[in-house]
Amino acid sequence: MKNFFRVFCVVLFLLLFSFNTALAEEQYTEDYFVLTSQKFPSSEDSNADLLANGFDLEVDGSRVSAKMDGDFNLGGLSNCSGTASFKLIGERNVKSGTMNGTFLYLMKGECPGNAEAPASPISLIWEGTFDGFATFGLVPSDETKRIIKGKIINLQGESRFVLNGVAAAPTTPPSISIDFPETVLEGYTRGVTRTDSGMRFSGMTGQVEWRADNDPDGWKLCKMGDELPVGTHIRTQEDSSAILGFLDQSTFVLKANSEVIIITPPEKESKIKFIAGNIWVNVKKMVNEGSFEIEMNQAMAGIKGTTFVLSDDGTTSTLQVIDGEVQFTSKATGKKSSVVGGSMVSATSVGLGKVQTFDVAKETTEWDTVSTAVKENTVKQNSGIGFLKSNFLYVLAVLLGVIVIFFVVRVILKRNK
């Protein structure tokens, strides 16, 4: 029985290892189509006057997002004016075509005063959820084109209005529905092949986004399990953070307002481009296995197994080494500096600055706080029933694998007896 248990545990470990490895196949194929910057008018619903001029909608195989920015003037006796913005983001079920997500409408301006009362600042925040559907179909005469048609329904939520610093009681406006006119997508490509970077999100909080190409308006809301291809841009918005990792256990923690690009997959020589913000890096690749390189605006960081922090505001690139050693190279002069644990150095367009010391314990504590907050938020979102729903296939596959292995090993042991 002991031998049976040992064999069972070994086989189970191999099953789980191979299953996780399969999550990062080098190549994968997807139908890729994007509709962007199309002005969609609102419906004839009398409550849709806020969206009367339409908004920019973007739809791909699994996500839908929209935005609207502009000025408003209420006219009439009030004649209040100002600026307004509308953002919508959600998911689309590729099989059913149904959509759901959240929206946020912001309005800020001023109502002119008169002889009896001064001008009064006003603001409005309207946020809530939406449902809907979007259908796609190929143009029979041209397979590079695809037709989209659909509708956003049940755009509804809570509205909070503030006049001259005094907040009115929250209200729930009647829902709004918005039709998509039939539109042809240009340049539809069936079966785009992408190279999987092997990087995955292991935690996030707030608004974290990514895009798989060079389209500056192609940002998508991140979710756990997303396959991130080579060339992916990842960014965190204000009050947001994220934890990412490769299969080799290398970990990256991004603070708010940070952006990175995955340049190459995790091979012998891996490379990431750090655009802006603050990032904690713990690279597991050892000297005999390969190297890791991070490109910044003013310098290059070459790593072979270490922990460090990078910060970049576009003009100054700073390195703080927590443990190990990093070779820091100035882009302006080509000068190199080997920076060890407890030391830091910055690079500008002029070159490298002086190597200085910093408080490692304080820096580590600060990043531990960020990582803990992200992990707690992720656990909360994926605990209990929520975890089972979002990981149903994974859990089912593991359970079935365990059952099959149990009976196979048992049969083998009986035969050996």
Mean pLDDT across the residues is: 78
Structural class: alpha+beta
**Tally the helices: what do you get?**
4
**What is the end-to-end distance?**
12 Å
- Percentage of residues in DSSP E strands: over 45%
Taking all Cα atoms into account, the compactness measure Rg is 26 Å
Poorly predicted runs of 5 or more residues: 13-26, 385-390
Return the domain count.
2
Helix content: 10-25%
Q: What is the C-level CATH assignment of the largest domain?
A: Mainly Beta
Fold-level CATH name of the largest domain: Jelly Rolls
Please count the beta strands (DSSP E, at least 2 residues each).
27
The CATH architecture of the largest domain: Sandwich
Main sheet summary: 16 strands, mixed
CA-based shape? globular
Quaternary arrangement of the chains shown?
Answer: single chain
Quick structural summary:
This protein has about 425 residues and is of the alpha+beta class.
Describe the fold and architecture:
This protein has 417 residues and is an alpha+beta fold. It has 2 domains: 1-26 and 196-417, Jelly Rolls (Sandwich), CATH 2.60.120; 31-191. 18% of the residues lie in helices and 48% in strands. It has 4 helices and 27 strands. It has helices spanning 2-22, 360-382, 384-390, 392-416; strands at 27-32, 35-40, 55-59, 63-73, 81-92, 98-111, 120-139, 142-163, 166-167, 176-185, 189-195, 200-205, 208-211, 220-221, 233-236, 241-245, 251-254, 259-262, 269-283, 291-295, 299-303, 306-312, 317-323, 325-330, 336-340, 343-347, 356-357. It has a 16-stranded mixed beta sheet that branches. Strands 2, 3, 4, 5, 6, 7, 8, 9 and 10 form a 9-stranded antiparallel beta sheet that branches. It has a two-stranded antiparallel ribbon with strand order 1-11. Strand 7 (120-139) and strand 8 form a beta hairpin. Helix 1 runs antiparallel to helix 4 (392-416). It is globular, with a radius of gyration of 26 Å. The termini are close together.
